[in-house]
Amino acid sequence: MRTTVASAPTRFARQDHFPQGWQTCVAQFLELFHRYSFICKPLTGGSWFSPDQKWKLQDAEILKAVACVHPRFFIGCRAGKTTRFAVLDIDQNSLYHNKQSLDRLLKVLRDAGLEKSSLYRSSFSGGWHLFLFFEEPINSANLRKLLVKLLTLNDFQLSKGQLELFPHRGDEGSLGLGLRLPLQPGFAWLDKETLEVKHERHDLTATQE
Q1: Mean pLDDT across 21-49
Q2: Sign of dihedral through CA atoms 169, 174, 44, 68?
Q3: Rounded to an integer, what distance in angstroms lies between the CA atom of residue 150 and that of residue 20?
Q4: DSSP designation for 55
Q5: Beta strand ranges found along the chain (DSSP E)
Q6: Is the pLDDT of residue 1 over 50?
Q7: How far apart (Å, rounded) are the C-alpha atoms in residues 184 and 201?
Q8: Is the peptide bond before 167 cis (omega within 30 degrees of 0)?
Q9: Is pLDDT of 84 > 60?
């Protein structure tokens, strides 16, 4: 069942969703995301768009989005010069959206020393986001080059609708492609062994995530 956001409050009281004692966790989460050249998509439908690239995405806008109470938009971010994570984006209709392909992908990553990963359903569309997190910030361009080389050498096809890699530089001269933030409506935690949903986002509060 999908949750409705039509009645979401226009005022955001952070303490109602992230109470006392969660400041450190919230701060660490917020630090993951580059704040400029962000992207938005209306909750009512339509396409992703980029507001003014000089605007800075505020903490409250991120927290409203991941608490599923943003009154107007889904939110996404582009990568900055450095990043603490990479994401492999696999659409529902991709030839890699199956257990056999996922297992092969995970093995390639493990053999390269990337043993820790988390698999999520990115939205109600059913696509997957496979997150790889790093202890320290890594140069985004270098990380992308290394992962592109690793995946292509192992015969993975990197293309829109099949397997996309973020950070994503986009077309020449662009700001790069943005990626939907996790934990918004439609998000779910997946079991990498069974591919079944472990937790639906709308079943948990912000601090149960």
Answers
A1: 92
A2: positive
A3: 43
A4: P
A5: 39-42, 73-77, 82-90, 118-121, 128-139, 164-166, 179-180, 188-190, 197-200
A6: no
A7: 7
A8: yes
A9: yes
